[in-house]
Design a protein that fits this description.
By secondary structure, the chain is of the alpha+beta class. 27% of the residues lie in helices and 25% in strands. The strands form eleven sheets. It has a five-stranded parallel β-sheet with strand order 5-4-3-6-7, sandwiched between helices. A five-stranded mixed barrel has the order 8-9-10-12-11. A hairpin with a 4-residue loop joins β34 and β35. The relative contact order is 0.07. Its cofactor is Mg(2+). It comes from Urochloa decumbens.
Length: 935
């Protein structure tokens, strides 16, 4: 049966166009119920014959009750295609979660294509809204199921939409709200998962303090979207992402393109119920209210006071100051800042997630089994406390739990939410590691059977077809080797360096040919695209691809034949590239060395074997390439990369220190950078509109202001007019302190923007520039085992060489942009998870090891300063005043970056060396921290 669907859309040129599409209807779509005789020929039987009821769920149930649906107690659910489409349009994260339930063979969730079934398809009615049409389609499908299954099983429509429920009952359907259905299951614990709606059939219990003083309106109502849209157009409001200060949850920043600056939001009332990561509409306050606040270090156990305004403590959170007020902090007269100050008037897009933490200590209520109200405290200080109600309070005390936010009323000081699940005991290492993963949205689910079914049969060996492939060159005779971190099993890059008869060198970078096994559109490919990257924690790795691929089939291990994608140059002894070629290849690595082993070979003058000579030749070329790159303006930055020695049995840290970078590390890095640049040039030449590239935006002078202020205070003049000028300035930044130059480079690194992936068709060529590398073009090609970006680039390169067709997705600009956005999101989350894992293991290490050591002051505050501990790569605050004292006895000289106690000769300056004591304390329950104090 054929129907016509028509709709109008606006073209890029602004013209309105009517689109008519043919819509085919069928009558042979399976209902999914096991014993259904009418649909007996169907293969998939997901709905259980013994089910008490078949649940047809409304869109609002999926959107707002996903935590409940994921609970194993909820089964035999019908997901209509109209519901899934609506969920996908409204919340992609929830759509991915419900999709995972539908494809999980262990769960009884069945997708019914109601829009393709002749008996359940509904035509649009004149004057009917899309929401009303979808509600009608849901009721029609529920009625069809009821008639189709007859007396064999009860069909129940679950909806929290009061109007939809009323109409369903009037039409003779069984319909219930989520809460009433869950209550019928007689499992009280499930009620904790129920999201109480702000409207509908469920009356929300007030979890607030009932005293009259607490019932006043605390926040302003958010402006309606129509008013926000109009205000943005007129320049009255400004849109941007809200970022809460990591060290002070009562101050936030909104980057606004409309005014080209960041707007400071001070106090909970001005933040107006917005969360970190929300897209918000901001109204600027009158300029006479743009006062600078004193720069303090926040106490970890600071109470929530509306008049506490702190400046940020890290590059991740720092506003991009346009000027610096050079008045001493001791001055009582407020100064006017050039930074705009504003207040949130509306939420354009929410960023509510599930949060990890624990319940605030409280006395146990009398009796048991009833509903208790509690305050949830997230481990992330940027997240406000969340009110929840629970029937299992005794089981949640002293546990790490997950809580989701449901709503935030203008009458409530805190948002309301619901308990999702328990992670484990507070302080348990496995529990705290899982918290890190949840907080950073790291996918740790085992690979599904559908994904694993995409893997080649094991054990995998090279086939005659691989060798016979005219597009794959046999390089097994070439002396190829790899150099990686110690213990590395997922080896995705190797090199060779052959001296040619003409005195030049043939240098090859060989990268694991992952795309030979990961094909576009397969479950394996979709899973890798969603995960985006492998995640490296201390002593643990969460893989992007299944281990049979990462550690066996694709890994370029020694003495086994493997498939590779190679970039091969002819180079002069001066590292000038004569020619470049790209080919799929077959290699057989002769050695898999660690950086330490490779360095030892190069340093041992007694060794003159061919492999060691190859290493030395590569190192000589790399040094020239590195110098040339630096001469172009590439920055040599630094970071405090921490290395742990882990106990093999307990997995606890035994030792901690700074990771040592050797020449061998730099040698490998140089050739990987060169390969990435060569591939970027090749793919962009062939696909100027759909290449996946990586850029590093140039920092503004305002972003570099903290670095410039610090450098100036110690008599160092940094030229930041270009990357080349900055690189030369950093090279000349020296004094008697051997650590001084590295410290300056670390501070410079923190002022940089993040490098990001992008689709070439989205930007102009001038925006492709990679500031840190001083490269006009750059991409990622060399790590496809651990980064999905490299998988995408391998497909582009294969298509450019005409050895594979370009997948259809590359013709879809918005989808490519979405892939780049997800890669940036996943890459950033992986970085944050790695840092959090380091912080966790640092706490574990020092918990039983109080230590005295040296530190360098890196930031001056009114009540103390921030220090960096070179030996351990740790940064933290030193307080000069007692808790609660806002530094009245100390005066800060902003120009010379010095804090002085009046009437004494006691002062501290930035980059000064101090002796400190480090030990783990717990100022607040369940919030241990590493405390640093002066000796």
């Amino acid at each position: 049966m054929l129907q016509s669907k028509s709709f109008v859309k606006k073209t890029k040129q602004g013209r309105i166009q009517k689109v008519v599409r043919e819509h085919y209807l069928r009558d042979d779509i399976y209902c999914g119920f096991g014993p259904c005789s009418t649909c007996a020929a169907a293969a998939e039987r997901k709905l259980d014959a013994a089910a008490a009821a078949i649940l047809v769920v409304d869109t609002n149930v999926v959107l707002h009750q996903i935590d409940l649906l994921e609970n194993p107690a909820i089964e035999d659910v019908v997901l209509l295609s109209v519901v899934l489409d609506e969920v996908k349009n409204k919340n992609l994260a929830v759509f991915n979660r419900i999709k995972a339930l539908c494809i999980n063979k262990a769960r009884r969730f069945y997708v019914f294509a109601n829009e393709q079934h002749r008996d359940t398809y509904v035509k649009d009615m004149v004057g009917e809204s899309s929401n009303d049409r979808n509600d009608r389609a849901i009721r029609v499908a529920a009625r069809w199921y009821q008639n189709h299954l007859g007396e064999s099983v009860k069909v129940l429509l679950i909806t929290n939409d009061r109007d939809n429920k009323r109409k369903a009952i009037e039409e003779g359907l069984n319909a219930e709200t989520v809460e009433s259905y869950v209550r019928s299951l007689a499992q009280p614990g499930l009620l904790d998962l129920v999201v109480v709606p702000t409207s509908g059939d469920v009356t929300m219990e007030d979890a607030e303090d009932h005293r009259p003083s607490k019932k006043k309106v605390i926040y302003n109502e958010h402006k309606p979207m129509s008013e926000i849209t109009s205000g943005l157009r007129c320049g009255i409001y400004h849109q941007g992402k809200l970022r809460v200060n990591r060290y002070n949850p009562f101050e936030a920043y909104v980057g606004s393109e409309s005014i080209g600056d960041e707007i400071v939001i001070r106090g909970r009332s001005n933040m107006n119920r917005s969360f970190d990561g929300d897209i918000v509409a901001v109204e600027l306050l009158p300029q006479d209210q743009w006062h600078e606040s004193k720069s303090f270090i926040a106490d970890d156990d600071e109470e929530e006071e509306e008049d506490v305004h702190l400046v940020p403590n890290s590059a991740d959170d720092a506003p991009r100051n346009t000027s610096s007020t050079q008045s001493s902090v001791g001055s009582s007269a407020p100064s006017v800042s050039s930074r705009p100050v504003g207040r949130v008037v509306g939420i354009i897009k929410r960023n509510w997630n599930s949060y990890c933490g624990s319940l605030q200590p409280m006395p146990m209520p009398a009796g048991s089994g009833g509903v208790a109200h509690a305050l949830f405290v997230s481990k992330d200080r940027r997240i406000p406390k969340i009110r929840i109600q629970t029937r299992q309070l005794e089981n949640l005390v002293n546990k790490r739990i997950v809580v989701a936010v449901d709503s935030w009323d203008v009458l409530s000081r805190y948002p309301s939410g619901h308990y999702v699940r328990t992670i484990g005991d507070i302080g348990d290492k496995e529990t705290e590691t899982e918290v890190v993963l949840i907080e950073n949205d790291i996918n740790t689910r085992p690979f599904s059977t559908q994904v694993l079914a995409c893997l080649p049969p094991l054990p995998w060996t090279l086939s005659p077809g691989d060798l016979a492939n005219p597009n794959r060159q046999d390089l097994r005779h070439v002396r190829v080797f790899s150099v990686d971190p110690p213990g590395c099993r997922d080896i995705d890059d190797a090199l060779h360096c052959t001296l040619l008869p003409n005195g030049n060198f043939e240098v090859g970078v060989h990268i694991a040919d992952v795309t030979n096994f990961v094909h576009p559109g397969t479950p394996l490919d979709e899973e890798a695209a969603q995960r985006g990257t492998s995640v490296y924690l201390v002593g643990q790795r969460i893989d992007m691809l299944p281990k049979p691929l990462t550690e066996d089939v694709c890994s370029l291990r020694a003495d086994v034949e493997r498939l590779a994608f190679s970039v091969i140059w002819e180079m002069t002894p001066d590292a000038d590239i004569i020619s470049t070629r790209y080919t799929k290849s077959v290699i057989k690595s002769c050695a898999a060395m660690s950086y330490v082993e490779a360095q030892a070979r190069m340093d041992d003058s007694r060794l003159v074997d061919p492999l060691t000579v190859d290493l030395r030749n590569l190192n000589s070329l790399a040094k020239i390439m590195r110098q040339r790159r630096c001469d172009r303006g590439a920055l040599t930055l630094a970071s405090a990369e921490v290395k742990f020695e882990i106990d093999s049995e307990t997995h606890d840290p035994l030792d901690i220190g700074i990771y040592q970078i050797r020449e061998a590390n730099q040698m490998i890095e140089e050739f990987m950078l060169a390969a990435n640049i060569s591939v970027a040039e090749k793919i962009l030449k062939h696909f100027p509109l759909c290449s996946l590239l990586r850029r590093h935006p140039s920092p503004t002078k305002e972003m570099l202001e903290p670095l410039l202020r610090t450098a100036s205070s110690v008599g160092l003049n940094l030229d930041v007019s270009s990357s080349k000028a900055l690189a030369e300035s950093l090279d000349n930044a020296k004094n008697n302190d051997p650590y001084f130059n590295k410290l300056i480079r670390i501070l410079a690194t923190r002022c940089m923007t993040q490098a990001v992936y992008f689709c070439s068709g989205d930007l102009t060529f001038s925006e492709y520039y990679h500031y840190g590398l001083a490269a006009s073009l750059y991409t990622h090609f060399t790590s496809p085992i651990r980064r999905y970006a490299d998988v995408v680039v391998h497909r582009l390169l294969a298509a450019a060489l005409e050895i594979a067709k370009l997948p259809p997705i590359f013709q879809d600009g918005p989808q490519l942009t979405g892939i780049a956005d997800n890669l940036n999101y996943r890459h950033r989350n992986a970085q944050m998870a790695s840092r959090a894992s380091v912080e966790l293991h640092t706490l574990i290490y020092f918990r039983t090891r109080p230590t005295d050591t040296e530190a360098r002051i890196v930031k001056i505050k009114a009540n103390g300063f921030i220090v960096f501990v070179p030996k351990f790569g740790i940064e933290g605050p030193i307080y000069l005043t007692p808790k609660g004292d806002k530094g009245g006895d100390w005066i800060v000289d902003e120009v010379h970056q010095r804090v002085t106690k009046p009437g004494t000769n006691i002062s501290y300056a930035v980059l000064q060396t101090v002796r400190i004591h480090m030990e783990v304390v717990e100022p607040q329950p369940h919030r241990p921290k590493l405390q640093l104090t002066l000796i």
